[in-house]
Amino acid sequence: MSPILIGFPLLIGMLFCCSTDKISADEQEALADSDIASKEGGAKTTLVEISGEENAYRFNVTVSSPDTGCEQYADWWEVIDTDGNLLFRRILAHSHVGEQPFSRSGGPIAISGNTEVYIRAHMNNLGYGDSVLKGSAEKGFEPIRLDAEFAEALASENPLPEGCAF
Description:
The chain is α+β, with helices and mostly antiparallel strands.
């Protein structure tokens, strides 16, 4: 067999085998996180923009969710404190099948600028996801993993959706 025919498969194998070495640890973790979230099928909060002033903040939250229609859709996003108390909930009255990710605003939310909160989304048929944002109005927000069972009892606390329009 010619040296070219022997060397080519070896070169291809080395490229595929070692290509992940060029991805940073942070990039690998982000890929793993996105794979986990998609396997779980839960909704994720991916971005928050805050306006207003202390004790009257408005949050504009971006959610990514595997909506398929009223049988499966993100039915709210909420702001909770680090003890698991509900501070605000934005009801989403319909699915967002053709609009992913999507952003919706809500407020005013009566918190101080340095109050740390979680922002998370809920699926009507799957409950809370574990991909949330944590932070404050002053310091900003970053994605974290939060046990989906954290403050799970809030799922039955008002306000709750009254149905799905489409």
